[in-house]
Amino acid sequence: METVDLARLQFALTAGAHFLFVALTLGLATLVAVVQTWATLTRNPVHLRMTRFWGQLYIINYAMGIATGLVMEFQLGLTWSGLTEFAGNTFGASLAIETLVAFFLESTFLGLWIFGWNKLNRWAHLAAIWVVTLTAYASAFWILVSNGFLQHPVGYERAGGVLRLTDFGAMVANPTAQVAFFHVLGGAMVTGGFFVAGVSAYHLRRRTAEQDLFRKSLRIGIGVALPATLFTATFGGIGFETLQPAKAAVWSGDAARIAAAQAELAAAHGPGDYLPPAGWVQTGALTMLIAFAVMFFFSGLSAVLMLIRPAVRSLRVWHRLLTLMIPVPFVAMLGGWVFREMGRQPWAVYGLLTTEQAMSPLTGAQMRVSLTAFVTVFAALIVTNYLLLARAARRGPDAVTLGDRPLDAPPTEPALSL
User: Where does it mainly reside (predicted)?
Assistant: First the structure.
């Protein structure tokens, strides 16, 4: 395998794995913030326990996501120095903003939320989780602004063989980034909704003690997943209008459109194969669409079943299927990511810099060592995250340590009122 192919494989595996953590983090943060809002307004002890339980799962996933994000930063700098030298003055601005948002604002307020139980005023504590949620959205937005520039470069000039940013507003308003942001945000809500519903169904099927908590959680999960699926599909459809001509042609399978797209790119950039790999593009899109159909059907059916109270309480077949649905949104997210990123090939910056030109001057042996190291680290993080999440989810609210009252606190002290 050529060095550039090894580098692409490394980036695909690390970015794709990190994307899965991001999707669940965004979805769970929103659900935890909404549940805590209701708990703060009503002082309902069940919703308070829900906040602590789902919040602890969120923190586990967030921690692993931060670790994979740091590894991503290393591999981007080590393997793709040609990209940063050529276009770092453009999309680097939005990456820098994302770093400030994620590693300063988001992490600071998350620390206040984690350690502020029983210490902060209940409204200040609620505000902390909403700041965490909104900064998570902002972080995702700036990442997609950077990615949108790579997909469809705007607001730049070429000087001295490199790109320079001339219109920051144009880069931010790039339709390729804007549409992708809402599509990803909707997908994250679907992921979080099915995760909450699936874990809740597991406990309902096993008749664990916290039946009321998990019935409410199941309703919230499905109540989010169904409209979020439609929201995601809407922006996915709009996103098809922003596809690069070559990607659109390959996706359509129309031989005439494919030939026209290739001829246009060859005329602009010289002889060469400028078409993305048809197999990857079509497989990624079909995987995403099939997973969407499955999620839409099942969330719609679940919404109907939720109207029947005995079904929520005792329909074990439905509970088992809901638990099995947990990985489906992740499959859809990965399919969509493959469709988006493979469809840009062979360009790192579409129409301006090829993937081969974007690579660092590495040998095949160096790339094999790097690939092995990164895959090993990511595999360990993914397995660790799965085991920790599965254990915490299986053990239920009684094993939650988030927000525990200090041992010397009065037993009547309300957890959210100090």
Answer: membrane
Both tokens of residue 344? Answer: 């840009």
Amino acid identity at 290: I
For 119, 174, 362, 395, the CA distances from 4, given in Å and listed in that order, are: 53, 29, 9, 45
- Average pLDDT of the residues in 96-112: 85
In whole angstroms, what is the distance from residue 180 CA to residue 182 CA? 6
Q: How many CB atoms lie within 10 A of CB 286?
A: 13
Q: Which two tokens stand for residue 283?
A: 């497989």
What's the rounded Cα separation, in Å, for the pair 199 and 73? 32
How far apart CA 277 and CA 5 sit, in angstroms, is: 13
Return d(Cα 286, Cα 294) in angstroms, integer: 12
Strand, helix or coil for residue 277 = coil
Cβ–Cβ under 8 Å, residues 71 and 78: no
Residues 6+ apart with CB under 8 A from 127: none
Domain borders along the chain are 14-157+165-393
pTM listed for this prediction: 0.91
Q: Is 80 exceeded by the pLDDT of residue 413?
A: no
